[in-house]
Design a protein that fits this description.
This protein is of the alpha/beta class. The protein has ten helices and twelve strands.
């Protein structure tokens, strides 16, 4: 699929639910977002059918996200269904990691290839503050499980917030002894017109990736540790715009994703689908197309038509239009 700006679109991110077993202050109110009605959420079979049609239209890579995708009943069945679609080369999952210890084996057996685990801080008190309900050791157990069953790559993502002053060096150092790809992501002030802002964070909290890297290297110098160098053979195959570095001799890498300070819209390769069956051509735009009616009442050709329309609607870039009406948990970050 080629969009109207000449970009090849072959990556579909699917939100399976807007529910979650955590309540990160920048993503969800403590009592959850007004949950979607059960009938509004796409059924597992409906999602499988959409992916089959999307695959015939040019999608080769799929990521399952949410909300927390592992709280969605049927997620393992969905992975198995998608794995059976010949055009799909790889299936990935973005998760907070809490349920991985009990689910990693089944997900691997069903055909999941890659995982991204979200962990904004290694400090228990700070983690609990950000997630309201979470404990950092549960995420470490999830990372251990992901490595044990052999997902490849295992990436760990941290959103950096200026007012939190996270220990970015310690986070980066986790890439040294194990094949972990530790990635820093600039905070995106999205969802500000959703009426919820539990974090109080805004544009002033965006820390540009250049600055994060300099902080890591400054700390490395202080400790007599080598600085980051551009990643070599351990660089993970990516689907996105991360720039990878490594500590010399490390098993993993350190990645930087800068949607705000250095947007990568010209390389955008993706479409997003929300749990209630809306195609969102751009994360930062509230424009959405209704796929649910097509899957419930239409033919495969009707489904394909919605994808083709979405290609036409993909904007050339996000133009810093970040105050969207849906929070990340509702879009599928
Ligand atoms: N629950 C899963 C998880 O936490 O990985 C998947 C969904 S969550 C919305 C996906 C990612 O979006 C998480 O890594 C989270 O930190 C990130 N995220 C949420 N709100 C964000 C924001 N405003 N800016 C940048 N990243 C954000
Ligand atoms: Fe849940 Fe992920 Fe949002 Fe945190 S970031 S509340 S884990 S969906």
């Amino acid at each position: 699929m080629i969009d109207s700006h000449g970009r090849v679109i072959d990556y579909l991110r699917i939100s399976l639910t807007d529910r979650c077993n955590l309540r990160c202050i920048y993503c969800m109110p403590e009592d959850g977002v007004a949950a979607l009605d059960h009938e509004d959420i796409l059924r597992i079979e409906e999602i499988s059918r959409i992916v089959r049609v999307a695959a015939q239209t040019g999608i080769t890579r799929v990521r399952l996200t949410g909300g927390e995708p592992l709280v969605r009943h049927g997620v393992v069945d969905l992975v198995r269904d998608i794995k059976a679609i010949p055009e799909i080369e790889s299936i990935a999952l973005t998760t907070n990691g809490i349920l991985l210890p009990e689910m990693a084996d089944d997900l691997k057996a069903a055909g999941l290839s890659r995982v991204n685990i979200s962990l904004d801080t290694l400090d228990e008190e700070q983690y609990h503050y950000i997630t309201r309900w979470g404990h950092v050791n549960d995420v470490h157990a999830g990372i251990d499980a992901a490595l044990r069953v052999g997902f490849k790559p295992v990436k760990v993502n941290s959103v950096v917030i200026r007012s939190l002053d996270q220990d970015v060096f310690e986070f980066a150092r986790m890439s040294v002894d194990r094949p972990l790809h530790m990635r820093f992501i600039e905070y995106m002030p999205v969802g500000e017109s959703s009426g919820y802002d539990g974090s109080g964070w805004g544009e002033q909290d965006v820390v540009p990736c250049e600055e994060i890297m300099e902080t890591i290297n400054a700390r490395a110098r202080e400790l007599g540790f080598p600085e980051l160098v551009p990643a070599g053979k351990h660089r993970p195959t990516g689907w996105g715009p991360a720039r990878y570095y490594e500590f010399p001799g490390a098993q993993g890498t350190v990645g930087f994703i800068s949607p705000i300070s250095n947007h990568f819209c010209s390389e955008c390769n993706r479409l997003r689908m929300t749990a209630d069956g809306k195609i969102r051509p751009c994360l930062f735009s509230d424009e959405e197309l209704d796929l649910r009616t097509a899957v419930r009442e239409g033919t495969d050709e009707d489904i394909r038509e919605v994808f083709l329309q979405a290609l036409q609607l993909k904007p050339d870039e996000h133009h810093s239009r970040v105050g969207t009406a849906r929070k990340m948990s509702q879009i599928g970050g």
